[in-house]
């Protein structure tokens, strides 16, 4: 297919496709004439993947390039690939940033870079460490999500929102259940397929989890609305009678 057909099939404009080609995000087509190239199904898949990462995840192209590189040149270990994918996804937290922000004094000197601490230093990511070990998981200060969790928990603390061991256990148990279901899929894959799935699954399933959480909130709030309890436990989910 020509680039105009590729644009039609993917919903991405020709100028944008040419930009992807210039930036190396999309492989060049097979040259058939001086100013013409043919594109195949693999180009359609690639463009749709880029669109998912830029539209669904709203990732900047630099981060999209990182994820595509992980897919094109996969690591041997799915865990390492997943860690690299986490690093390419928001929230973007540099190692020890959370601890540095907490200890920073606007009126005083710059805080010491806590990245110089030994990995086993208990001062490093204390909130994340407590939550992770409470769930029986291994605390790894070099895993990107550890810094992300520390920054998130610090944000809760600074905003005065509740967080305690009981809440950590509830949230953690739910996420462990989700993770177990996801990893069952990897067991039947080849190593290269597992790496690709780890990268894309990390990038594209997270918005699904977030949306489902928000929908669950909406559903429960509807059930808590005045009159819902009086009408019975099934009132919030019962279909409305047809109009007329």
* Structural class designation: mainly alpha
Shape call: elongated
Listing every helix as H and every strand as E from the N terminus to the C terminus, the arrangement reads: HHEEHHHHHHHH
- Low-pLDDT segments, ≥5 res: 97-120, 235-244
Strand order of the largest sheet: 1-2
Distance between the termini: 52 Å
Number of helices: 10
Q: Which bin fits the share of residues in helices?
A: 55-70%
Report the C-alpha radius of gyration, rounded. Answer: 23 Å
Q: What is the CATH topology descriptor of the domain at 1-56?
A: Multidrug-efflux Transporter Regulator, Chain: A, Domain 2
Structure described in brief:
The chain is mainly α and 244 residues long.
Give an overview of the whole structure:
A two-stranded antiparallel sheet has the order 1-2. The protein has ten helices and two strands, in the order ααββαααααααα. The protein has helices at 3-10, 14-23, 41-56, 61-72, 78-87, 97-103, 126-134, 144-159, 165-186, 191-224; strands at residues 30-33, 36-38. The protein is 59% helix and 3% strand. The model is unreliable at 97-120 and 235-244 (pLDDT under 50). α5 (78-87) crosses α10 (191-224), α6 packs parallel to α8 and α7 crosses α8 (144-159). It has 244 residues and is mostly helical. It has a domain at 1-56: Multidrug-efflux Transporter Regulator, Chain: A, Domain 2. It comes from Nakamurella aerolata. One of its GO terms (molecular function) is DNA binding. It holds the Pfam family MerR_1. Residues 101-123 are annotated as: Disordered. Residues 112-121 have a biased composition (Basic and acidic residues).
């Amino acid at each position: 297919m020509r680039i105009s057909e590729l644009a039609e099939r993917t919903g991405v404009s020709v100028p944008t496709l040419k930009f992807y080609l210039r930036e190396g995000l999309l492989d060049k087509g097979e040259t058939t004439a001086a100013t013409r190239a043919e594109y195949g199904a693999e180009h359609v898949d690639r463009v749709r993947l880029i669109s998912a990462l830029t539209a669904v995840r709203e990732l900047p192209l630099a981060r999209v390039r990182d994820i595509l590189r992980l897919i094109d040149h996969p690591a041997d270990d799915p865990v390492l690939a997943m860690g690299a994918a986490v690093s390419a996804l928001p929230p973007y937290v540099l190692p020890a940033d959370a601890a540095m922000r907490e200890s920073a004094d606007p009126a005083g000197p710059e805080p010491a870079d806590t990245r110089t601490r030994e990995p086993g230093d208990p001062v490093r990511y204390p909130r994340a460490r407590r939550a992770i070990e409470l769930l029986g998981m291994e605390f790894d200060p070099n895993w990107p999500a550890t810094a992300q969790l520390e920054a998130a928990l610090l944000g809760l603390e600074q905003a005065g929102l509740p967080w305690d061991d009981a809440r950590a256990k509830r949230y953690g148990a739910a996420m462990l259940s989700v993770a177990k279901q996801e990893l069952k899929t990897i067991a039947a894959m080849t190593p290269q397929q597992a790496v690709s799935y780890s990268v894309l699954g990390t990038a594209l399933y997270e918005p699904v989890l977030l949306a489902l959480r928000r929908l669950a909130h909406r559903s429960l709030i509807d059930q808590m609305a005045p009159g819902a309890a009086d009408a019975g436990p099934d009132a919030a989910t019962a279909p409305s009678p047809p109009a007329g």
